[in-house]
Each structure stands twice: as C-alpha cells, then as structure tokens.
C-alpha cells in the first residue's frame, strides 16, 4: 500500500472512477458498522484483534479511493503543528478534569464506576488499550478516511457534518452497554429516568458535536495528531481521574 504525500515534489492525486469510490465508501461504512457491534458486544480479546486490523484495512481502502497522506491527516509535514495543538488540548482537558474533582456534583459524574480499579490497571487501560483500541481507530475512520472520502464529491462542510453525524451514531451501542455499569447517568438524569431514550439521544448529540470540534482541529492543523490528543485526553484522562477518585472513596 503506497499513499503519496502531496507535499513531495511532483506528487499527484490518483483519479478513481466514481463507481469505484462509491463502492469503497460503502465498504468503509459496512466495516465500521461491524466494528461497532464488536466493540459493544464482543470480548476484549476480539476487540484487541479486530479493531487495529480494521484501522489498517481502512487505510488500504483509502488508497483504493485515491486519498493521499495529506487527505488522511498523516502527512509528516503537519506533525509538528498537530502535536502542538494536541498537547495543548491534553493540558486543557486535564485542567477541566482537575477542576471537576473539586466540586461534589461534577465529582460524582466523573467517578465512572467502570474504572473502580487499581491504578496500575487504570494506567494500562488509559495509556495502551484506549489509544490503540479506541482513539486510533476512530480518528483514522472519522477524521481521516471518512472525512477525506466525503470531502471529494460534496465539499468540506458537508463532509464534516456527515462524518460527525456518523460519529454520533457510532456511540449508540456502546452507550447502551455503558448504561448497565455507569452511575453517571443516574446522577445527571435522575434515578429511574427515561434511559435509554434520553441517555442515548444526549450521547449521540454530544459526540456528534464533539466530532465537529475534532474535525476543526484536523482542519486547522492538517494533522490527525491534534484530534488524537483531544480524543485521548477526554477518554484516557477520564479513566485515570475516575480511578483516582474511586481509590480515595474506597480508602
């Protein structure tokens, strides 16, 4: 698989017939639907194998579509700017989490019951599992491959809206699974609330808007490193903060 970096001298974007592009796009959506089911209902071992493999397959399909490294946000010429924005995003999210720990209401929301675990396990989850299993696949899929593919025929604004809407829908099944374990929804919506309807709708809207923000980081920097940083900080630091809070609660 060879994708051409357009920043290189003489690089050109491959021309691919429209019918082939539509077939590749449909294949990408089908693969993501399958990955979504595996994420929600599969075993941890299945996820560890399937999701990184799907990320690699998506990059291969991006090549078949005719996308370049720059189209995918992974051109080496954008790494410095992307890393700077990503690092700033991590610092900002960290400050927000630390502030949230100081208030009883937000502390109860942040203390996700799924991460009532030893700090060593939380570090492994936050620093290894989440980056490789969740953040990398989702950023390659939604801010790399889908954004690049949809920008070709319909323009950037439509592509941002469509990829962000799909990112929101991607979270429906995982949200239903999370609701079985996480007490945060009871804190926010109240015990006995009309979950899953309210909870799923709220998560879809929130993650759809988050998708727009992540796409904007991608646009400003030209790099996936910026949205990768923000995405990891939201998930990974959330795990670490939750584990710290539960460690304090349990003494």
Give the overall shape, derived from the CA principal axes: globular
Relative helix content: over 70%
Q: For the report, how would you describe the main beta sheet?
A: none
Q: In angstroms, what separates the terminal alpha carbons?
A: 52 Å
Low-confidence stretches: 6-11
What is the C-alpha radius of gyration, as a whole number of Å?
A: 19 Å
**Total beta strand runs:** 0
SSE order = HHHHHHHHHHH
- Overall pLDDT score: 85
Q: Structural class, judged by helices and strands?
A: mainly alpha
Q: Tally the helices: what do you get? A: 11
Strand content: under 5%
Please describe what this structure looks like.
- The chain has 251 residues and is mainly α.
- The protein is built from 11 helices and no strands.
- The model is unreliable at 6-11 (pLDDT under 50).
List keywords for this structure.
mainly alpha; 78% helix; globular
Short characterization:
With about 250 residues, this protein is mainly alpha-helical. It is about 80% helix and about 0% strand.
Question: What is the element layout, followed by pairings?
Answer:
Elements: H1 18-41, H2 44-65, H3 69-72, H4 79-101, H5 104-110, H6 119-154, H7 156-170, H8 172-178, H9 184-189, H10 197-221, H11 225-250
């Amino acid at each position: 698989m060879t994708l051409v970096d357009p920043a290189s001298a003489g690089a050109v974007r491959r021309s691919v017939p429209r019918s082939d592009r539509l077939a590749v796009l449909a294949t990408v959506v089908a693969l993501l639907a399958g990955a979504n089911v595996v994420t929600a209902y599969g075993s941890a071992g299945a996820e560890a194998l399937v999701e990184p493999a799907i990320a690699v397959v998506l990059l291969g399909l991006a090549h078949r579509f005719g996308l370049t490294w720059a189209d995918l946000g992974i051109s080496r010429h954008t790494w410095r700017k992307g890393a700077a924005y990503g690092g700033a995003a991590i610092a900002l999210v960290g400050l927000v989490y630390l502030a949230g720990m100081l208030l009883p209401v937000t502390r109860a929301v942040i203390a996700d019951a799924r991460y009532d675990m030893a700090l060593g396990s939380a570090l492994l989850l936050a620093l290894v599992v989440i980056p490789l299993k969740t953040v990398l696949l989702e950023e390659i899929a939604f801010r790399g491959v889908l954004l690049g593919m949809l920008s070709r025929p319909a323009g950037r604004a439509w592509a941002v809206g469509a990829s962000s809407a799909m990112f929101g829908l991607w979270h429906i099944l995982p949200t239903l699974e999370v609701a079985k374990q996480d007490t945060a929804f009871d804190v926010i919506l109240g015990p006995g609330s009309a979950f899953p309807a309210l909870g799923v709708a709220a998560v879809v809207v929130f993650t759809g808007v988050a998708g727009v923000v992540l796409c904007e980081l991608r646009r400003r920097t030209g790099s996936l490193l910026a949205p990768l940083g923000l995405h990891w900080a939201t998930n990974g630091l959330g795990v670490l903060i939750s584990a710290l809070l539960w460690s304090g609660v349990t003494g």
